[in-house]
From TrEMBL:
This is Ig-like domain-containing protein. Belongs to the Izumo family. Residues 148-242 form the Ig-like domain. Keywords: Membrane, Signal, Transmembrane, Transmembrane helix. GO terms for biological process: fusion of sperm to egg plasma membrane involved in single fertilization; sperm-egg recognition.
Length: 332
């Protein structure tokens, strides 16, 4: 009987569904089968596990049959936690019934995480072409899942961009699903000069601008002649185009500045050498005479003042001299 059980375990499918692509889950279920108290219980649990694998596979195939590493990790972590809680709980009922319960719990966990992955993680591109790396739930090997554009076109639309002359414009064509692309795609920027949106452009109208790993470019010190139609294309090393977007850049003139009116001085009445401060011949002689008279008057006034000061000084010294002479006579 033990030989039969071992042969059955050897025939356990290595991977029949997304959840079994994790080696820890496979080992966990194998240990669970061997933990049954009797050989008959182990055989019965082996049959239950095989049936559970079938339901896991159906659940996986109903949901594209693929999974990404992040979703597989989340499903495995949650199921492992539930399984540990199940093993730590004392069970008094049928061993086979309890096995069915925990395996069905695993199917529901797988279903929940696959639904989330299909809704939010698989083919998130709303436009453009995405080649997404996923895990095949049957072979448990990585493969490329092609996500075509829902609209059937690589062009992801046009976006107007307004800027002023001398200002700045930032063009950014990044979308979150670009991180899922394989290798290292590059952003190719090109442009067609002219007023954007006024005429239909063809491929030869565009001139190469820059090729960069960065999704954005910054245009500084803009001129009016730099307005035009700017295009961003995402390409891989082989030249495959995954995504394309167009920016319609319009550069407006700066508003006219208000200038203060300049004051115009009147022309000189007597030629360029005329100056209101330059004396004429008619005024020169009276001016000299007046200066001379004022100088003589000032000199005379100064002499009079000096004479008066000397007279007052002599008058003040005369009594002192008389007193000194009187004292000298009495002494003799």
């Amino acid at each position: 009987m033990l030989l039969v059980l071992v042969s059955l375990l050897c025939c356990v499918p290595a991977a029949k569904a997304c959840l079994q692509c994790d080696r820890r889950i496979r080992l966990l279920l194998e240990d669970f089968v061997l933990s049954a108290p009797t050989v008959n219980n182990q055989i019965e649990m082996k049959k239950i596990c095989d049936h559970a694998y079938v339901t896991y596979r159906e659940t996986s195939w109903e949901r594209k049959g693929v999974i990404d590493p992040t979703t597989l990790y989340r499903a495995r972590t949650e199921y492992q936690s539930e399984f540990d809680r199940f093993l730590k709980t004392k069970h008094t009922g049928s061993v086979t019934f309890e096995a069915i319960q925990i395996l069905e719990k695993g199917r529901k966990i797988l279903e929940k995480h696959l639904d989330t992955f299909i809704r939010d993680g698989l083919c998130p591109n709303k436009c453009g072409l995405l080649k997404q790396r996923v895990i095949d739930c049957i072979s448990c090997r990585y493969k490329i899942y092609i996500c075509p554009s829902p609209s059937g076109q690589l062009d992801c639309g046009e976006y107007p961009v307004l800027a002023e002359e001398g200002g700045q414009a930032v063009l950014n064509c990044f979308l979150p699903w670009h991180r899922l692309l394989l290798e290292r795609p590059e952003y190719h920027y090109s442009w067609a000069p002219g007023v954007p949106g006024t005429e239909k452009l063809i491929e030869r109208d565009f001139k190469a601008l820059v090729v960069t790993d960065d999704s954005s470019v910054v245009l500084n010190q803009l001129h009016v002649d730099e307005q035009g139609t700017y295009r961003c294309s995402l390409l891989d090393q082989s030249g495959t185009v995954f995504y394309q977007v167009t920016f319609l850049l319009a550069v407006s003139h700066l508003p006219d500045q208000t200038h203060r009116p300049m004051i115009t001085l009147p022309s000189l009445p007597h030629g360029d050498n005329y100056s209101p401060f330059q004396p004429t011949a008619g005024l020169l002689v009276p001016a000299i005479v007046m200066v001379t008279v004022l100088s003589l008057a000032a000199s005379v006034g100064l002499l009079v003042v000096l004479g008066m000061m000397m007279s007052q000084r002599r008058a003040a010294e005369e009594p002192s001299r008389r007193k000194e002479g009187k004292n000298t006579h009495n002494t003799v």
